[in-house]
Each structure stands twice: as structure tokens, then as C-alpha cells.
Design brief:
By secondary structure, the chain is mainly beta. Helix content is 15%, strand content 43%. It has a 4-stranded antiparallel beta sheet, with no helix packed on it. The protein is elongated. The protein starts with a helix and ends in a 15-residue tail after the last strand.
């Protein structure tokens, strides 16, 4: 009987160990032009995993532990974008489409004296 239980347990082991990961992937585009934004830093919290988008604006994290993550997108010249509570499910991929907005130019002082 013990041998039968052991065989049953070890036959399920690969599903228990390897079935608990998921993926996060997506694209980052610029707000007005719709063009891909490359070299955007993508950071997952609480894991602190980071990567950059490629030339097509794409990113992909493989083999993520199942759970909830906040995803932070940053690039110099663009406003930071945060996506809270992204759920990673076992054996599936979460997909994000992110639109980044450029930092607006400084506004000139409308009260400044005219020379």
C-alpha cells in the first residue's frame, strides 16, 4: 500500500512543482504617436525583477511565481506609469498594453515682464 501511495505522489510531483508559474508580457507605446517605446525599465514589485523593453516596445517575464504584482514603467523624458495588482495565474500569461506620455515642456511664466 505504501508503494502505491508513493507512486501516486511522485506521479503528481511534476504538476505540483512545475505548474505554479506564469508569465507577464506586453507592449509599451507612446501616447500621441502610437510608436513603440524602447528601453523602458519594467520593474515588478515585490520581486524587484527588472527588464527593458526591446525595439518594438515589447517585454516578457517568464516563470513568475503565482501571485499579485505591481508593475512600474519608467523612462527618462516620460511620466512614470504604475499598474497595481496584476495577477499572475498558473500556466497562463497576463498581458499589458501600456501607453506612456512624454513629460510636458515647462510652462513659461505668463506674468513675466515683456522686454
Amino acid at each position: 500500500m505504501k508503494a502505491l501511495i508513493s507512486i501516486f505522489f511522485f506521479s503528481l510531483l511534476p504538476f505540483l512543482v512545475f505548474g505554479q508559474n506564469g508569465k507577464l508580457e506586453g507592449l509599451v507605446r507612446e501616447l500621441y504617436s502610437g510608436k513603440p517605446v524602447n528601453h523602458v525599465q519594467v520593474k515588478l514589485i515585490p520581486s524587484n525583477l527588472t527588464m527593458e523593453t526591446d525595439s518594438t516596445g515589447a517585454f516578457q517575464f517568464d516563470s513568475l511565481a503565482v501571485g499579485e504584482y505591481s508593475v512600474i514603467f519608467t523612462k527618462i523624458g516620460y511620466l512614470q506609469h504604475v499598474v497595481p495588482c496584476v495577477k499572475i495565474e498558473p500556466d497562463s500569461a497576463a498581458y499589458l498594453r501600456i501607453i506612456l506620455e512624454k513629460v510636458p515642456p515647462p510652462v513659461k511664466d505668463p506674468i513675466a515682464p515683456v522686454k
